[in-house]
């Protein structure tokens, strides 16, 4: 039996399993999923778990329940590409014939002293649970600082305001205006929401140091009982240490068919892959579709196109609490308010209830 190993049960890994099970996996191929947890986690909703507006169980999706799928729980420490062996914490190893790497991302601290030691994170389920506990236990009128005003920081700040109206929330933004990747109309809408709901946005910030109970914006010391870092991501450690070509962001350079240039049986999906678009759940799912197609064509001895279609993204939707939102749909049509929030809620409901096999 040949072993097809999916390392990481994220959005890309889930889509690949959905496309191979139950009928498109050859009889001589064993499908193995490796993950630390016994369920898929909806990472796009970690901000709500951290803020306390959604429960742990609400952002879980069961892995496919199928006799052809074998689950292996653990953490891979290193990948031996030459010998096709995965090394786990401890002395366990696992050989593979095909490997799909989808380990996701970690926080990137940009060399800021103290940032890794004294900030909370929403990059993994375990870290988000710790962040939730810390925020929930803050006494009234505590100061909370969120470093990074991208989509994650904006959603966390707005959800936390809805959850804890008593907190003093500061959102640190490196740019002149919040969410510069969106049209000015959306940026202004979000900015006005924060003004109305008493979230302080600090523009042109530069966090130079973090200490226990405080951070420094340029040279100004700002007291904070909790500091959450949402100011950038990087590939997981096992990918950072992988002996293969990477781009300037540390993501793995791939062929048009999403595998390593030197090994057509090792694919990379999701946040760790070097692609034209910024990492997202949609992009990982699109990659997963194409990787599954490539594998099926190989197994069926069918020709594979030299280039694959461009992965089309349907848009971006962001939340401002449970009643308002913002986003860009399809042909870049801007949506705001309750309509945007309802659209996002619908997308999440569909994903959660239609992700099985």
**What form results from the Cα inertia axes?**
globular
CATH class category label of the largest domain: Alpha Beta
Mean of pLDDT: 95
Figure out the total of helices. Answer: 9
CATH topology of the largest domain: FAD/NAD(P)-binding domain
| Sheet of most strands | 6 strands, mixed
Strand tally: 23
What structural class is derived from the secondary structure elements? alpha/beta
Count of discrete domains = 2
Q: Report, as a whole number of angstroms, the end-to-end distance.
A: 23 Å
Q: State the low-pLDDT regions, or none.
A: none
- Give the name of the CATH architecture of the largest domain: 3-Layer(bba) Sandwich
Strand content: 25-35%
Walk me through the structure.
- The protein has two domains: 2-36 and 74-106 and 233-313, FAD/NAD(P)-binding domain, CATH 3.50.50.60; 109-231, FAD/NAD(P)-binding domain.
- It has helices spanning 11-20, 46-51, 115-118, 125-136, 151-163, 184-196, 237-240, 281-299, 337-353; strands at residues 2-7, 29-35, 39-41, 60-62, 69-73, 76-80, 85-88, 93-95, 98-101, 105-107, 143-147, 168-172, 199-202, 207-211, 214-217, 220-223, 226-229, 233-235, 259-260, 263-268, 315-320, 324-329, 333-336.
- The two termini are 23 Å apart.
- The model has no long low-confidence stretch (mean pLDDT 95).
- The chain is globular, with a radius of gyration of 21 Å.
- A six-stranded mixed β-sheet has the order 5-2-1-9-20-19, with no helix packed on it.
- α1 (11-20) packs parallel to α8.
- With 357 residues, the chain is α/β, with parallel strands linked by helices.
- Helix content is 27%, strand content 28%.
- It is built from nine helices and 23 strands.
């Amino acid at each position: 039996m040949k072993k097809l190993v999916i390392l990481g049960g994220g959005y890309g890994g889930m889509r690949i399993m959905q496309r191979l099970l139950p009928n498109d996996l050859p009889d001589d191929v064993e499908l193995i999923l490796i993950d630390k947890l016994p369920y898929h986690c909806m990472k796009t909703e970690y901000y709500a778990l951290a803020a306390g507006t959604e429960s742990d169980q609400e952002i879980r999706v069961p892995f496919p329940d199928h006799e052809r799928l074998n689950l292996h729980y653990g953490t891979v420490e290193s990948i031996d590409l030459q010998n096709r062996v995965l090394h786990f914490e401890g002395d366990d190893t696992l050989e593979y014939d095909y490997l799909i790497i989808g380990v996701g991302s970690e926080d990137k601290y940009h060399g800021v002293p103290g940032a890794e030691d004294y900030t909370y994170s929403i990059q993994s389920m375990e870290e988000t649970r710790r962040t939730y506990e810390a925020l929930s236990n803050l006494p009234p009128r505590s100061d909370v600082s969120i470093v990074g005003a991208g989509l994650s920081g904006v959603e966390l700040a707005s959800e936390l305001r809805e959850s804890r109206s008593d907190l003093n929330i500061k959102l640190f933004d490196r740019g002149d205006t919040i969410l510069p990747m969106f049209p000015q109309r959306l940026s202004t809408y979000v900015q006005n929401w924060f003004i109305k709901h008493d979230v302080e946005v600090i523009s042109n910030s530069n966090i130079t140091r973090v200490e226990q109970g405080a951070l420094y914006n340029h040279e100004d010391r700002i007291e904070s009982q909790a500091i959450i870092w949402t100011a950038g991501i990087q590939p997981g450690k096992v990918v950072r240490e992988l002996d293969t070509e990477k781009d300037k962001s540390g993501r793995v350079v791939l062929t048009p068919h999403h595998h390593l240039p030197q090994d057509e049986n090792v694919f990379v999906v999701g946040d760790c892959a070097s692609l034209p678009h910024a990492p997202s759940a949609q992009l990982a799912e699109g990659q997963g579709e194409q990787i599954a197609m490539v594998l099926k064509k190989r197994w069926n001895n069918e020709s594979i196109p030299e280039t694959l279609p461009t992965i089309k993204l349907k848009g971006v939707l962001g939340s401002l609490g449970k009643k308002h939102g913002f986003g860009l749909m399809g042909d870049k049509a801007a949506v705001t308010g309750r309509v945007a929030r309802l659209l996002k809620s619908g997308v999440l409901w569909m994903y959660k209830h239609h992700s099985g096999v």
